[in-house]
Structures
1.
Amino acid sequence: MFEHLPRYAGDPILGLMSDFFADPRIDKVNLGVGIYYDELGQVPLLDCVAQAEQVVVSEHKPRSYLPMEGESAYRALVHQLIFADSLDKRHFGTSIVQTVGGSGALKVGADFLRTAWPGSEVWVSDPTWDNHLGIFEGAGLKVNRYPYYDPATQAFDYEGALAVFKSIPVRSIVLLHPCCHNPTGIQPTREQWIELLDALQSREAIPFLDIAYQGFGQGLDDDAWVIRECAHRGMEFLVSSSFSKTFSLYGERVGALSVVSRIHDADLVFGQLKLSVRRNYSSPPIFGAALVARVLGTPALRQLWESELATMRSRIVKMRAQLVDGLSKLMPERDFSFLQRQEGMFAYTGLSAAQVRALKTDHGVYAVETGRICIAGLNPHNISRVCAAFATVMRSA
Ligand code: LMR
């Protein structure tokens, strides 16, 4: 019955996690998946989450179905976090649905767009998070790439991206990373964003902004700047967001999809989003979103969360600096300053697939084959070993 099925090659990121856990070496280092680990190499349970959990559990609430769109307090708090006061509420409405993580938001959004604009194609940055391709193609949309990373300069290919944005077919769907680009960590400047958005507006493009790391780059508001700029401009667009990393709630799958539309279309949009949710998973789960809503909606917990988020952000910045420093000391002939110009959880090292394989096999250091590493997997105990392993594989190339 099933022998004709193609063998699944495994996921390039999640597959690495299984390999890592199966590796018996005690000094192995996981720089593959985008998970924030603390100084001791543990996935933290944030204090604000632990406190919210106690309150939520003590309430012993029944577990009926949530509505298709999710819990309303959660949705309102997500709206405030992402958009602040950037929308002109007289003319624009936001339809928000709680989703099963950021991936769920992308899938609900992709299905929605396939219905709304069946003739449109999607444009994603080259490179992008691998699953962007999978999710949009899985929803039946054709996916194209726009230039993003220039290997020669190890920087953003601004001219290349702008040229494509100016010439894409009208009503194309364009996937953007408002902060902490996954996988490169490279962001356009604000001046560049303005030109890029001008070009997209001139093509009546439909921006789809994927923000999975709000607060891991420059800060909560700065990281949402592009989204708010789209709102100020009176654009109509989609935003997928996630609390996996920023609340360390990976396994709870807490995300949201927001669609900004003209106010008189908001009801139509909201209905289609609910339909998309119903067809995918009916309604979202309760617990993770209840924790997030409790933290965001309680001033003391919200303050605690912001300080814990700042601690995670500054630890990442510190480890990035130590990586650059360590590599520069071991290989003074090379310039590693490009790593310092990247932001967020990831560094795009420029390592080849063969070098990444050697890192894993010979040194027990796990990275994604594209050369992406998760900086948040580095800590004071493994940084010198990782730098030494990098130097060995880089020299042997
Ligand atoms: C990543 O990019 O490593 C994370 O977003 C986890 C995932 O689902 O791929």
Note: The longest strand covers residues 92-100.
2.
Amino acid sequence: MSLLKIAQIGHPILRQTARALATEEILSPDIQSFIDDMVETMRDANGAGLAANQVYNPIQVCVVEVEDNPRYPYKPRIPLEVLINPMITVLSEEVFENFEGCLSVPNIRGRVRRNAEIQMDYIDREGTPHQKIVRGITAGTYQHEVDHLAGKVFLDHVFDSTSLCTWQEFERHYRDEFVKEAEAVVAKYGS
Ligand code: ZN
């Protein structure tokens, strides 16, 4: 396994729409070892997720995992998941506010609105299709990653530019208030 370089905002690959994979491709040794590298790269960077075009490969693959994450201590846990050709269906009008950051947008966080209840359709690394309903903060994490595969970044959803801040200023000025909001979202949606 090896660590992959992470594209930074401004690189055109982050604005490219990723292409879907056929099942035979998913099972190929190349894609399987690429997935291993993505997981290793996400963990090394303390990311909650990573999309393939963030590592210069515009294919429809993203990985998500939240354990005890120093970047996002309030996020509910998500066991490691590999999502291939993911599709999101919004299940309700409800939205919540999230304070997001991104490994491709160094040292900036900002407030975005995310759908609170979504259905995810995707294929796993063995080529098996899955469907599941995801709510709350965890739903926001999936929306962030699937956005990458459509060439979007969280900055596109920031509705109030005065919320933009560095990680240090987030800790100083916004963290306490936001942790309470995040806890309320988790209490309401269970994740
Ligand atoms: Zn990101």
Note: The CA atoms of residues 42 and 172 lie 26 Å apart.
